[in-house]
Amino acid sequence: MKERVVTFALALAAFALFYTLMAPKPSAPQERVTRPISIEAGPNGHAALFRWLEAERVPVASFRERYTELSRHFAPSSATGHLLITATPHDYPIRASEVEPLRAWIAAGNTLLVLAGLSDTPEWSMAEGYDVAFMQNMESMTGLRFVAIEVEADAAESAEAAEEEGESAASPSMSPALAAMRLDEPQEFTLVPNGLHAFFSGVESAVAVSEYPASKWRAYSVSSPLLLELAHEAESGSPVLWELRQGEGRILVTGYGSLFTNKLLGRADNARLLANIVRETLGPHGSVILDDAHQGLVAFYDPDAFFGDARLHRSLGWLVALWFVFVLGAQRLRPLASTWSPLDITSFVRATGGFMARVLKPAAAGQRLFANFFNDVRRQIGLPADGGPVWEWLDAHSSMDTREIARLAALHARTMSGHRVDLVKLHNALVRARESLN
């Protein structure tokens, strides 16, 4: 029992050391900022929009791929148009490889609606991973260039002052520290139509909310002279909704990223404005597509989603539990098996003979057999053991049959010339010759 307790304590210590060295350290607890995706039920999500369209039997889909996959999943056909809704700034910014496929898809007869955090600054737009190239990416997606109205006015005043003082003018901008300072109370803005339009049927106003300071913007088209300003902000009079034609399709950009979030969809005429846009842009077989991929909800590999998945944590927990069971379970130590296996003399001779038979030529083996035989005879008669033949002595003094001596002499001549001989017969003949000499 004591051994089990010691083993358990050491296992816990090993696991604690592994966790300390390898596991990522949790960050300080903080309030989670929800993002505008179709499954998010928090204040900034689009779950209410998604469920409402489903309830109204409007085809709606969560798109979790890059824009390069749009044509494969939502290919336009005759009299058919789709509406793609995306909120910016993106959590996963648009790539250069996505721009042309997106533009081509729109030009084929579809609509892009961009809910841009320009004239409002929603809290999700200031979260970690903010798109630092937001304005450049907006221009790539929409073909529109946005310039802050306050900057334009301040720049003109600075230019006049600089001319009077004889100095060069520099365009001022909002202090980064001021822009990143959260407001004590969220600021509300009101969108009102510029005039009669199908999008504003029954719409008097729509409401947006900004948790951070926001600028006002003017849009300029870099590709088409026909840019419509459809609505403006009631408080400042600055434009907040633009429409631009792109081939057979269109691009709609609203300066409010919070317009159709869960917390605002039921306010003022926000839902009616969305319903009008869907009615006017959707084709007979088209779908409303919510761009979830660029807000972090992706079908492709996402390391943050992978390591944050509860299934991974449960699997690791089971592995740790099974490891503890294995460590603490009864485990008999097997005796060490000896690898030494002694060989008898017969096996040794057989192994040596087999080796010699594989590497030694028969003629060379025969020569060695004759040399050994001749040396044995030489030692008996007192001659040096140099392996030389002793045929004369054998003919004159030995009791060997002359025919046997002649047969041995013929075999000796054959081996010395390098011809193949039957080693078994040669060995037997030499054994008989030794018996005759003894």
Q: How do the helices and strands line up, and which of them pair or pack?
A:
Elements: H1 2-22, H2 47-55, E1 60-63, H3 70-73, E2 83-88, H4 96-107, E3 111-116, H5 134-142, E4 144-148, H6 149-165, H7 176-179, E5 187-193, E6 206-210, E7 217-221, E8 227-233, E9 239-246, E10 249-254, H8 270-281, E11 288-291, H9 303-307, H10 310-328, H11 345-359, H12 362-381, H13 391-397, H14 402-416, H15 423-437
Parallel strand pairs: 1-11, 2-3, 2-11, 3-10
Antiparallel strand pairs: 4-7, 5-6, 5-8, 8-9, 9-10
Helix pairs in contact: 12-14, 12-15, 14-15
Terminal-residue CA separation: 78 Å
Which CATH class of the largest domain is shown? Alpha Beta
The H/E string reads HHEHEHEHEHHEEEEEEHEHHHHHHH
Please, what is the oligomeric state?
single chain
Query: Regions with pLDDT < 50 over 5+ consecutive residues?
Result: 151-156, 165-173
Mean pLDDT across the residues is 83
Please describe what this structure looks like.
The protein has 15 helices and eleven strands. It has about 450 residues and is of the alpha/beta class. It has two domains: about 35-150 and about 180-300, Rossmann fold (3-Layer(aba) Sandwich), CATH 3.40.50; about 345-435, no CATH class. The strands form two sheets. The chain has a nine-stranded mixed beta sheet with strand order 1-11-2-3-10-9-8-5-6, with helices on both faces. Strand 8 (about 225-235) and strand 9 (about 240-245) form a beta hairpin. Helix 12 (about 360-380) packs parallel to helix 15 (about 425-435). Mean pLDDT is about 85; it is low at about 150-155 and about 165-175.
